[in-house]
Amino acid sequence: MQVTSITHGIIIDHVPAGRALKVLDFLGIDPRKTRLALIMNAESQSFGSKDIIKIEGDVVVDLNILALVAPSATVNIVRDSVIVSKEKPTLPLHVTNVIKCSNPRCVTSTERGIKQQFHLVRGHEDARGMQYRCDYCDEGAKL
Ligand SMILES: [Zn+2]
């Protein structure tokens, strides 16, 4: 069992380098109101570099939302300074109104009131987060 620097909370590991703040934003975690530590551009054996987010306290992470910004991430659950379980993001097949289409000419960009709907095209993790395509024009998401 790996001992951590937090006692009760979560560690989101293997976040793509430079994307930690985006992850907090998507998860609705306010860094000004949360006890957390960000480690940016840490060395990673499998990714070259990565970000790590450590959050003290009871935090609920939506693994579907995490999958959109950091599909390669691992969520470590920490109790009494020990990692007791690990969770992986689960890639939803369809996403509505979370991410936006990157195509400026897409109907979802040019017209109001149209849902931002995306579908999963590859079930495999992709560090660039482009595995979701717009239902209308098949472009990737803006992240
Ligand atoms: Zn589109």
UniProtKB/TrEMBL annotation:
Residues 1-88 form the Aspartate carbamoyltransferase regulatory subunit N-terminal domain. It comes from the Bacteria. GO terms for molecular function: metal ion binding; transferase activity. Signal peptide: none annotated. GO terms for cellular component: aspartate carbamoyltransferase complex. One of its GO terms (biological process) is 'de novo' pyrimidine nucleobase biosynthetic process. Coiled coil: none annotated. The keyword Transferase applies. Residues 95-139 form the Aspartate carbamoyltransferase regulatory subunit C-terminal domain. InterPro entries: Asp_carbamoyltransf_reg_N, Asp_carbamoylTrfase_reg, Asp_carbamoyltrfase_reg_C, Asp_carbatrfase_reg_C_sf, Asp_carbatrfase_reg_N_sf. Keywords: Metal-binding, Pyrimidine biosynthesis, Transferase, Zinc. This is Aspartate carbamoyltransferase regulatory subunit. It comes from Alloscardovia theropitheci.
